[in-house]
Design goal:
Blueprint (H helix, E strand, L loop, with lengths): L5 H38 L11 H44 L12 H5 L28
The structure holds zinc ion.
Length: about 140
């Protein structure tokens, strides 16, 4: 039943992959044009002959821009996912710690705490079953 969303996601990721490959390639081509254009421009300053490859700068700069935009588009999602993946566990752990496992606004609530109705562990804050004598999480005596 989730087939509705899967092709879209797969398609999006293949577009991203294409951007990641195409972006740097276009970036390099653009860079090549700009470098040749610059070298030719400054190299021809002392000669009577004008810069005949100067036009490459005007081709290279837009190509460089397009390549940069593609690369950014290809890696933007990855960067966002990386940041989210790195920070969320920290936020979750902090919320769990600060709330003794009960969670803050639904974040960091441990499954044990959600199911248990007994005493909280003095050692680690995990809520245990009503008849528990030792903490489920750290083994501390609950008596
Ligand atoms: Zn404990």
């Amino acid at each position: 039943m989730d087939d509705r969303t899967t092709p879209g996601l797969a398609n999006q990721s293949s577009v991203r992959t294409a951007f990641r490959v195409l972006g740097p390639v276009i970036l390099l081509v653009g860079l090549g044009f700009v470098v040749v254009g610059f070298v030719d421009f400054f190299g021809s300053m002392n000669s009577f002959q004008g810069p005949d490859k100067f036009w490459m700068l005007f081709v290279g700069l837009p190509v460089l821009f397009v390549g940069g935009a593609l690369t950014q588009a290809g890696y933007a999602g990855t960067a966002a996912r990386y940041v989210a993946g790195e920070t969320m566990p920290v936020v979750k752990d902090s919320a769990t710690y600060l709330s003794d496992g009960r969670g803050i606004a639904g974040i960091g609530r441990t499954e044990e705490a959600a199911a248990a109705t007994g005493p909280y562990c003095r050692q680690c804050g995990t809520r245990n079953d009503a008849d528990a004598r030792f903490c489920d999480s750290c083994g501390q005596s609950l008596a």
